[in-house]
Amino acid sequence: xxxEIEVAxxxxxxxxxxxxxxSYDEYYECECVDVLxxxxxxxxxxxxxxxxxxxxxxxxxxxxxxQDEPCMLYKEYEEKKVIYLNRRFMESFLREDNYxxxxxxxxxxxxxxxxxxxxxxxxxxWEGQAILFTAPSGTGKSTQAMLWEKCRGAVIANGxxxxxxxxxxxxxxxxxxxxxxxxICRNVTVPVRAIIYLSQAMENQIEEMDLKQRIKKLISExxxxxxxxxxxxxxxxxxxEIAEHVDMYHYSCTKEERAVDxxxxxxxxxxxxxxKAFKSYRTGDM
Length: 286
What we know:
seven-stranded mixed β-sheet, globular, alpha+beta, 286 residues
């Protein structure tokens, strides 16, 4: 990135800056302006961004939480991308704990070029492999990750996001420098053992998903630009491929340590190729 200001990368992002400075896949310029030069047709909006189409290129206005005025504009040109920073928010951009500029890079589009997608999940490493807990916000992903850290010595690699990529027929989990409020992100790459879709319950019950269920759940928790047809088509291809090569379970569970026992037993049974005829377990069945 080339910038007229000294961009303060926080410690999360700094841990991922390992490539030679002259080696890069994407080039961005960063400019400070009084007025964000946005134009085009509105394609999508939510509480944090507005996406516009401008011919074959894309523009995105970004907003800080609770602000009506946009703080940044991501804009694509033929040979480069520019992130325009609203000068009124400059103090926030210069803070060392800030990673908002990274959010404005349309990172999921960069990943897509490298056949990678972002899964909303808590990512732990156990016995050299990744277990990914995914579900809507507030369901208990972080709770389950911390239980595994406490009870099994698992390492939490990221509390909120995981990059998924296929490599030689195996799904791999990659760390990324965005971790929500968890304050945990590590620059690691490990094969995925299982993806666990969580829901809260009074007892622990786990069911292995079929292919159709896997695809449906992955779609619900992977960052997909539905307003971009090419992105959507490629994402769906990748999701189908990932779903075919990874074990996925729907786990209705408690927040107690017993939830770790039940899931661990199921994963080990799968690993050892048990011939049991059933795929569903409750705490009382174990």
